[in-house]
Write a structure and sequence with these properties.
By secondary structure, the protein is of the alpha/beta class. The chain has one domain. It is 39% helix and 20% strand. Helix 2 (47-60) packs across helix 3 (67-80) and helix 2 crosses helix 7. The structure holds zinc ion. The site of zinc ion has 7 residues, from helix 4.
């Protein structure tokens, strides 16, 4: 695979689609239009992703937190900040407000709720099903829960991991007819730190939440983005720097795409590329 060709196309896409960072969260899903949640922190599952990470920490450390309790903790903090709790479905699952086909159109939540995949997310299928049903009920009675209904099919051509406090990149460009999975890593880490501090749950640390959050992100990338190239996007002042990092593998391969590799010093990237050339399944 010639990643250089993809890299130049990807740089062109990013250059056209850089947007200012905005308050609020959304999912890594590539189907958000530029008019939907533009510049918000793109992270798996939106705010429900934080709830899912908390459920995983609770399960691993045997804290006994219920899905409803985990949801309430995150929801209350966001509401106290006069912000919206953001999650999404899609038109395949929710063609109209009265029809539900399946659990939810957010792949991060739907895959974690699948009996054969939930262990990859450190959660149980029953807990995620309970969480989604509870969140759907809250969405019907609260103006603070924003459930965006995304249209269209997944046609993402890559994954952009953005490290910036000031900028993000639009997920979909209808003019270019292209979309990318977006992960705003730096802003997600900052928000997660604040959330953990304010939750103040005994036994739940930032390191715990970050570990489960990364594991769940990787699980969703393996499930939804296998084979796609991953690019790092960082900024020096107003200038953006884009680097090809790796390809996302599927579960059949034993070695997974690993987020911390994105922090490799720039001078190591050529060596990493060389190894990828020797063995495309390295990561
Ligand atoms: Zn989603």
């Amino acid at each position: 695979m010639d990643d250089n060709t993809n890299l130049s196309e990807t740089i062109g896409y990013i250059t056209k689609n850089i947007v200012p960072a905005q308050r609020g969260r959304k999912c890594v899903d590539g189907r958000y239009l530029p008019t939907q949640a533009s510049g918000m922190i793109a992270r798996p599952g939106g705010d429900c992703g934080y709830v899912m990470a908390l459920l995983a920490v609770s399960k691993r450390k045997a804290l006994g937190l219920t899905p409803e309790h985990c949801f309430n903790v995150v929801y209350k903090i966001i509401k106290e900040h006069h912000d919206h709790f953001c999650m999404h479905t899609d038109h395949n699952t929710d063609p109209d407000s009265n029809t539900h086909r399946g659990l939810i159109g957010c792949g991060h939540l739907a895959k974690a709720a699948a009996k054969n995949l939930c262990s990859k997310y450190d959660v149980t299928s029953q807990d995620i099903t309970r969480l989604v049903n509870y969140a759907r009920n809250i969405a019907e009675i609260s103006a603070f829960l924003e459930m965006i209904n995304l249209d269209g099919e997944h046609t993402e051509t890559g994954v952009l991991v953005i490290n910036s406090k000031r900028y993000s990149v639009n997920s979909e460009d209808p003019e270019l007819k292209k979309m990318y999975f977006i992960y705003d890593e730096e802003r997600d880490n900052d928000f997660l730190k604040k959330l953990v501090n304010e939750m103040a749950i005994p036994g739940v640390t930032f390191a715990d939440m970050k570990k489960e959050s990364d594991l769940q992100l990787q699980a969703t990338l393996h499930n939804l983005a296998a084979g796609l190239p991953v690019y790092s996007v960082r900024f020096e002042g107003e200038k953006h720097i884009v680097s090809f990092i790796s390809f996302v593998t599927d579960y059949e391969k034993k070695r997974y795409f690993h987020i911390p590799s994105l922090h490799l010093p720039q001078n190591l990237l050529p060596k990493l590329r060389q190894r990828l050339t020797l063995n495309k399944n390295f990561i």
